[in-house]
Design brief:
Helix content: 25-40%
Largest sheet: 7 strands, parallel
Shape: elongated
Distance between the termini: 24 Å
Order of helices and strands: EHEHEHEHEHHHEHEHEHEHEHEHEH
Strand order of the largest sheet: 8-7-6-9-10-11-12
Amino acid sequence: MSKPTLLHLGDPIKWNHELYKKLNKSFTVVRTGSLSRDAFIQALKENKWGDFVAMYRPFWNTGGEMGNWDDELISLLPSSVKIYASAGAGFDWVDTKRLAQSGIIYCNAAAACTESVADAAIWLILSTFRNFSWSAIAARSTNAEQFKDANKNIAAVTHNPNGNVLGIIGMGNIGYRIAQKASLAFGMKILYNDIMRKTPQLEDAVGATFYEKLDDMLAAADCVLVATPFGGSKVLNESNMSKMKRGARLVNIARGKLIDEEALVSALESGQLVSAGLDVHYDEPNVHPKLAKMKNVELLSHTAGASVESHVGFERLGMENIMGFFSTGKAITPVNVHLLSKSSL
């Protein structure tokens, strides 16, 4: 009996070779390489890979050259496809609802980069309190006057995070890990807003207080951290930024489009917000020029989850999702299973 076909999108694996051998024992693995959108569409129209049952994308940097997974692509997939497992935490580039309509489960790999993203979030939180960007820019300028300016004046406008209140928008695995680190390392008080409340045991472990209404949490937090998936609309705009404490801080490690950047610039210029730390940006790879010039804003290049450990995990978790689904009927990290009709399961 022939093995079902699995499409491997992008580069070959680098780390989990023994697990990949197991995958090849259960599937005929076909490498597609890195195809452009037009080439990928043409291959699907020609049924180049036959009735494949799964798609596996082990790396974030390759295998996505076909662009956003929308109806144009998804409608061309054979009805045999049951699961798509990809690297990365965010899934704003794939229409998971449309995949569900075709009976396809989408699995992300957020669990593999939780530690890395949480570490980066801690750096950004600390930077917004201590204004490390100002100090670093002054030192790297090799300009003695800039160095002396930071050395003499930074203490008057910076604070320790200890005892301050961290408000987290989105208390998923990543948000919760950030809460653990911030409460233990900095002694921060944790508030959170989410569509799902944590159990009393998990709340108690980090001293977290649940806020059903986002605006109420914003008014109580000294630093607000965005850690929620992008659901198609902004969570922070001019209206609710005005409800934040004057002099509060804002950190975003989720998706750039969750925040109205023009409103953020205005809030920083007016003093409504005193600082910000951004790993992600509204118009990536373009960074807002005004934010780039602000020494009270720490900026990263969407690298919060970028570590060797994350990529080893991306590679492994994708394979485990696919093998788990076909052996037990359940994937490990599905994000759209609730959207699938019972008849397609």
